[in-house]
Amino acid sequence: MIKPKTIIFSLLITAVAAMGASANLQETAAQPKRNLKVLPKNISKENLGKVMDEWKGALGVKCNFCHAASADNPRKLNFASDAKPEKEMARQMFTMTGKINKKFFHAKKGEDGMMAMAAVNCNTCHNGQPHPEIKEEKETK
User: Fold this and answer.
1) Which helix (H) or strand (E) holds 78?
2) What predicted TM-score, i.e. pTM, was given to this entire model?
3) What residues contact residue 88 under an 8 Å CB cut-off, 6+ apart?
4) Of 66, 49, 57, 38, which Cα lies nearest the Cα of 122?
5) From the centroid of its chain, how far is CA 35?
6) How buried is 40 (Cβ within 10 angstroms: 0-12 exposed, 13-18 middle, 19+ buried)?
7) 3-state DSSP helix/strand/coil percent for the chain, to nearest 5?
8) In the structure, how many helices (H) and strands (E) does the chain have?
9) Which of 6, 100, 104, 110 would be 116's cystine partner, CB 3.0–4.6 Å?
10) What is the spatial distance between Cα 39 and Cα 31, in angstroms, rounded to a whole number?
């Protein structure tokens, strides 16, 4: 026959384990989805915020310039969505500036996976404008 203390102890252990599993599921659900394709996958939330702030400043825009509204709540952004073409363009520009910095300025990635020194960045061309000014050359005779 099983002792009542053994049954109570087993139920207590089971309850504690279930609560721990439930807490882990809630933490996972609370973490926003990430869709990082050109930034390091292990970038911290703090560093990701800094990068996004730099890009917003360089283009003079807000988050919704690249990030689409959430389908559930249009007042919130779906940062993982690729619905807006501006997001893909930002990825291409980030890759382009990385190649320029590596080839011409011998820039190397730091421990965080980001370029340690970037001579060319978004602001180089954008200067606080969403679309860089294109200057046409005048014909010389």
Assistant:
1) strand 77-78
2) 0.71
3) 82
4) 57
5) 7
6) middle
7) 50, 5, 45
8) 4, 2
9) 110
10) 18
What is the C-alpha separation between 131 and 125, in angstroms, rounded?
9
Q: How far apart are the first and last CA of the chain?
A: 107
3-state secondary structure 18-75: HHHHHHHHHHHHHCCCCCCCCCCCCCCHHHHHHHHHHHHHHHCCCHHHCCEECCCCCC
Give the span between the Cα atoms of 100 and 118, in whole angstroms.
Answer: 9
Going by C-beta distance under 8 Å and a sequence separation of 6 or more, which residues neighbour residue 43? Answer: 36, 51, 112, 113, 114
Mode of pairing for the β-strands spanning 68-69 and 77-78: antiparallel
Token pair recorded at residue 111: 């421990």
Amino acid identity of residue 110, one-letter, is: G
Place of tokens 């807006």: 84
